[in-house]
Amino acid sequence: MTLQDARTALRLLRSVDSVYHDVSAGDFLPTGKICELADLECVKHTDCDTKYEVCMVSQYLILPRCTFIGVLKGTPGFMACEFEAQNYLFRRPKTIDRDTLEKRMRVPFRFNPLHDVESILWIATWIFYYHIDREGGQPLVDQMEYFHELFPRGLKDRFSTFIVYTDFHVLPTSFHRAAHVIANMCEDLKVAYTASEDDVVPVYTEPLAKLHSDFIN
Fold this sequence. Notes:
By secondary structure, the chain is mainly alpha-helical. The chain is built from 8 helices and 6 strands, in the order H-E-E-E-E-E-E-H-H-H-H-H-H-H. The strands form 3 sheets. Strands 1-4 form a two-stranded antiparallel ribbon. The radius of gyration is 18 Å and the shape is globular.
């Protein structure tokens, strides 16, 4: 239930027009039957501008390097693809007039609650591709190779996986059912992104509410 608790915590932040910005596996601490959200210094109002830098200390350890222009923190591997790109990636091609196009191009990129939810998806992906299905066992070779393709790779590798989330054959068969659930969550999130970015200025309130409902089910 830990990831569901994480989703609940992020939904509570949204209720006060705030986002977390840097959701990672170490930010949710199990306490009894629930988990708590830690490192609340990351929380910012949804109107806050976002910039970030990251630095790689080693192949396995990545630390954010912050500057204080709005918020400035991000953990590669768990970061939403749009936040890494600093651009909206799910706008559907359609015929629009020149004025609308110019307005859309002038819209600044802003972090929104869908990006926090995407980080939960990446945490779940990290869990499935890193862990093994039995005590004392060894991960499958293809499973670990695919894991290292995603973590801590950059935007191109992760976005490709986000668009086509179907590489289950590298996982132990005991993981396939749960991985299918995660894949459906990924599809729901892509639908929410696309719906929110249909307007000149992304409007995510209704897509986010539906997404939370889908995640519960």
